[in-house]
Amino acid sequence: MTAPLLAHATANGRMYARSTSEPPSVPSITTVIAQEPTTLDGWFAHMAATSLASDARLAEAAGNPGRLRTLAKEATLAADRYRDAAALRGDRVHGYCEQVALRALDKDHDVAGAREALKANGEEAFADRFDEWWQLYSVEPIAPEITVWNQEVGYAGTLDLVARIAGRTCLIDFKTKGTDRNGQVKALNDKVVMQLVAGMKAQESLVDGVAGSWEPWAYGDDPLLLGVAIGETEVRPMRANPEVLRWHWYRFCSLRRAWETHLQVSEAGRALLPVAPPAPALQAAQPAH
Predict the structure, then answer these.
(1) How far apart are CA 202 and CA 152, in angstroms?
(2) How confident is the model at residue 43 (pLDDT cuts 50, 70, 90)?
(3) Are 165 and 137 in contact (CB under 8 A)?
(4) Which pTM value belongs to this model?
(5) What is the pLDDT of residues 197-253, one digit of tens each?
């Protein structure tokens, strides 16, 4: 995950501040969306079983309960290792996308360094496919990595890119995706629509994080919302269906209320308190003299 200037990791999830001199006060878009429950138990179990089955030490550990327990314990961390590695890969790919946009805007950039970071991890194909998509769609960047704020609902976030494609203003969210067995990039999750519509509904965008200066959000008037899946074999852009945007916005707002309620509950105090027996029961329990 990228680290915007005003974003902070807190006990209540990622939150944003109005400036570098102020404490965080609202949750991030991704923190709000994370309030929606998801069940990954099956995936965690699959990752652990796959890791254990492919461990070269398994045959030697057979018949040795102690060594088997050690291997099993290590296997349970397979999902965490995969998730962490995917997050780092996503940061590198997002970093490359940002540098390409900065270069197109004639701003300071390090496209070569970002590509080298991908190459060093065997991930240069992501950059190759992104470059192909960038040229094919004639992307005209307006603002990469732009932080937005909605005071009315109470949230903030950072959009990957605002750009113009075929004369249309687009809000774009990049997702780094793996490749399926058919060589196609894996599908985007519908939650990307919530993320994009929350960005569209912003009221302000950041001008200077140190000074804490903001301006009215200039790109929320009927933009095209694009989720762009970036893989090693292809890049697949998907458009948010305008007919469903309001429902995904309502869903996001309800999750924002859920986040606030969770915060209030956690700060309200102890939920359960001990109860002493009533006085008559105490007296009856005393031995007679």
Answers:
(1) 9
(2) low
(3) yes
(4) 0.83
(5) 999 999 999 999 999 999 999 999 999 999 999 999 999 999 999 999 999 999 999
Q: Which two tokens stand for residue 249?
A: 């916005």
**Residue-by-residue DSSP string for 167-235:** TEEEEEEEEE--B-TTS-BPPPPTHHHHHHHHHHT--EEEEETTTTEEEE-SS-SSPEEEEEEE-SS-E
Residue 1: its pLDDT value, please? 47
Contact 123, 93 (CB under 8 A): yes
Gap between the Cα atoms of 210 and 11, Å rounded: 24
Distance CA 161, CA 144 (A): 4
Residue pair 163/142 in contact (Cβ under 8 Å)? The answer is yes
Contact 223, 169 (CB under 8 A): yes
> Cβ distance 255 to 35 under 8 Å?
yes
Binning pLDDT at 50, 70 and 90, where does residue 105 land?
very high
Question: By three-state DSSP, how is residue 25 classified?
Answer: coil
Domains of the chain: 25-264 (3.90.320)
Count other Cβ atoms within 10 Å, centred on residue 22: 11
The pLDDT of residue 128 is 98
Count of helices and strands (H, E) across the chain: 10, 10
Task: State which amino acid sits at residue 287.
Answer: P
Strands in 224-230's sheet, in edge-to-edge order, are 213-216, 204-208, 140-150, 155-165, 168-176, 224-230, 235-239
Q: E strand or H helix at 104, and its extent?
A: helix 78-104
Distance separating alpha carbons of residues 194 and 46, to the nearest angstrom = 28
Tally of residues, the chain: 289
Q: Which of 1, 3, 24, 22 is nearest to 12 (CA)?
A: 24
